Amino acid sequence: MTGAAAATRSIRDLALADLAGLKARHPEAFAGSPGRRALAIAIVAAMAGLALFAMIWFDFSPLRIWIGLHRLGDFAVMMFPPSAGGRFQAFLTALGETLAIAFLGTLAGAAIAFPFAFLAARNVVKSLPLRFAMRRIFDVIRSVDTLIWALMWVSVVGLGPFAGALAIACSDIGAFGKLFSEAIETTEHKAAEGVAASGGSRLHQVRFGLLPQVLPVMASQVLYFFESNTRSATIIGIVGAGGVGQYLTELIRVLDMDQVAFLIIMILITVALIDMVSTRLRMALIGTSMVRR
C-alpha cells in the first residue's frame, strides 16, 4: 500500500469513527434534499423513458440483429485475404486525393475563420451586437454537417474533389471561428497593455500583444482538424465529392470485399501516421500536458 493510499485509509477510518460527531457539527452536509433527490430520479426516469420510446419508434429488435449476424460474418469472410485486385496505383491516387481534400479544406476554413474570429472575441470587439451576430453565424455554419455541405456543393459545382474541399472548408469555418475566438478571449491582457503603454495603436496591441499568445493554440487546433478531416474526406467521397470514398461505395455495391478490406487498411495506416505526426507537432507547439488533456 502506498503512502497516499494509507493516508486516505487513515482519514476514512477516523471519519467513520467520528461519524456521529461530524453529523452533529455539520448537519447541513448530511441533510438530504428530498427535492433534489426527486429531481434526480425524475431526470433518470425521463432519460430511460425517452430511450425506450426511441427503441420502439425505430423498431429496435435484438432478434433482427441476431438473425443478421450471419450476413455480417459473410462480409468478414469475404474480406480475407485483402487484395488490391491490380488497382493499387488507382487506390493510392484516390487516397492522395482524399488527403488533398482534407488539407485544402482545413487550410481554407482556418484562413477564412481567422480574421472573423477576432470580431467574435470579447477582449477585441466591444460591440455586443457585432459579437453576437458573428457567434450566431459561426453556430449556424457549424450546425450543418460536412456530409450535407458535400451534397450541396456537389449540386453546385458538380462531382469531384473540388466539391469535397469546399464542403470541408465550409464545415470548418464555423468550428474554427468558435475555437479561435475562445482562444483569443483567454489571452493575458498584460502584453497588450504593455504595447498600449508604449504608444501602440489598437492594431499594434492585437498584432504584438495578442497574436503571439494564440497562434500556437490555433496551429494546434488546425493540425487536429486536419487529422479529423482526413476521415471526413473519406466519408464525403461516398456522395461523389472525390477521393477514396467513391471507390469504397462502388466496391461495397458489387461486393468486392477483399478490395474494400485493402482500402480500409490503407486508410487506417494513413490516419495512424497523420495522428502520430500531428500529435508530435502539437506537443512541440503547445506542450505535452495540453495535448494529453
UniProtKB/TrEMBL annotation:
Top-level lineage group = Bacteria
* Membrane topology category: Multi-pass membrane protein
Q: Which residues cross the membrane?
A: 38-58, 99-125, 146-169, 233-249, 261-283
Q: Which UniProt keywords apply?
A: Membrane, Transmembrane, Transmembrane helix, Transport
ABC transmembrane type-1 domain location is: 95-278
Chief subcellular location: membrane
Q: Where does the record place it?
A: Cell membrane
The family assignment reads:
Belongs to the binding-protein-dependent transport system permease family.
Q: What is this protein called?
A: Phosphonate transport system permease protein
Q: Source organism lineage?
A: Bacteria, Pseudomonadati, Pseudomonadota, Alphaproteobacteria, Hyphomicrobiales
